[in-house]
Amino acid sequence: MSVTIRRHLLAALFVSTAAAAATEPVDPMLLAARDPFQQALAEEVLLRNPGLHVAGARSRAVRLEAPQARALPDPSVEAMAFALPPETRVGPQRLTLGVSQSLPWAGKLALKESAAVHAAEALEEQVLADRVSLVTEVRSLYYELLFVDRQHDITAILREHLVQHEEISRSRYATGGGSAQGVIKLQAEITRVEKSLLDLDSRQIDLIARINRLRDRPADTRVERAALPEKLERIDLDPEALAVRAGARRHELRAAQARIAAAESMEALAHKAYRPDFVVGLTYTLVDPRDDAAGRLSPPAGNGDDILGIRGVIRIPLWRDKLAAGVEQAIELQSAAASAERELMLSIESTIGDLSQRVPLAWRQLRLVEDLLVVQAEEAVDSALAGYVAGTLNALDLLDAEHILSDAQTAVARAKTDYLVGLAKLEGAVGEPIASMESNR
Question: Up-side HSE of residue 177: CA atoms within 13 Å toward CB?
């Protein structure tokens, strides 16, 4: 398939998907996005992500198994012509036509349909769970990208300051007021900072490529974004309430429950396998009149009359070992589905418990570095700069102060990012925005 044709097909797919999405309610997880750029990015990921399209197509395909499962088996039609017609009292038989229909024991088809419906529900719920996971992933990557942007800005400002200090230091050294060691140290530090900027550029490229992979875009497509927010609000968390809410909201749990229901239907169907199935049918035989001498001389009663017959078959479930194995298999599958649900619930509770501790910890770290460390670092830079101008401190003292301030500003950005990423993951673990839970109390 040519690239042009493939692009047209993909465009048609996305247009049809967008038209379908326009009639659906807004995904609650999109409301958790903290800025318009993030929300637009999440919407694009949900619209374009190839894996999500695959999962959706699979779930729709499995949904179509239900009408197939509840349908009766196809009837059979048969015909048999006699090359050597058997001679009967009323004439030779020429052709037999028959039609038959298999009839499973009452309830078997309903159970097959029920299992197919629950299997489709499990896949549909899993698709919704995948949507939440994708939104959570792209939100986390988005925040990490904002952090790298902020770190890049901090490092670039540090480089500007170092360049200014290096120029002053060289001037002082030329006039005998400074040392060569200070100049060399500043030049080496400028080189190190420039390498850090290149490393941050590489990190930006990696994050942008990962985001573009999720939205099926070329790796170098620009990601529109804002900046890390200046102020954040503290959110009180109740792990028990969050776990209860997750139990009602998480689509993975609904998928697990649907798999349990499907396994229960399969177990009931396995028990039904002990019941016989039936085949009913009609046969019609064409009979010619007798043309032998006796038949012509004294035609028998019903001479040449066709024959109509009723056919019945009972399929006896005879091999008990096979039937018992089917029941045991269904029981084991049901047990596995129930254990998977329990394991999933434990995983959700563990994730919520862990994040419920990490998010407040990130908030405390943010308050510490923003309210104390940055203020102290700014005072240290002002003091070092004043001492450097007065000649009481050298360039190395000023360099240390600049590094302390840069590290403090980076720590603030990191704490903000950890807080925002933690909230995004926690909302993904619960399955809805935490802010909406607060408003519903």
Answer: 13
134 backbone dihedrals φ, ψ, rounded to 5°? -65, -45
Write the DSSP symbol of residue 148: H
Q: How far apart are CA 141 and CA 148, in angstroms?
A: 11
What's the residue count for the chain? 441
Report the alpha-carbon distance of residue 438 to residue 441 in Å, rounded. Answer: 6
In this structure, what are the phi and psi dihedrals at residue 88, rounded to the nearest 5 degrees? -115, 180
Tell me: pLDDT of 349 over 90: yes
Beta-strand pair 307-315/277-287: antiparallel
DSSP string across 193-210:
HHHHHHHHHHHHHHHHHH
Level-2 CATH architecture, domain 104-275+317-439: Up-down Bundle (1.20)
Per the structure block, which two tokens stand in for 2? 């040519």
Angle between helices 36-48 and 108-174 (to 10 degrees): 140
Q: 391: which DSSP letter?
A: T
Q: What is the mean pLDDT of residues 380-387?
A: 79
**From 135-139, 152-156, 382-386, the region with the lowest mean pLDDT:** 382-386
- Among 410, 407, 171, smallest CA distance to 163 is for 171
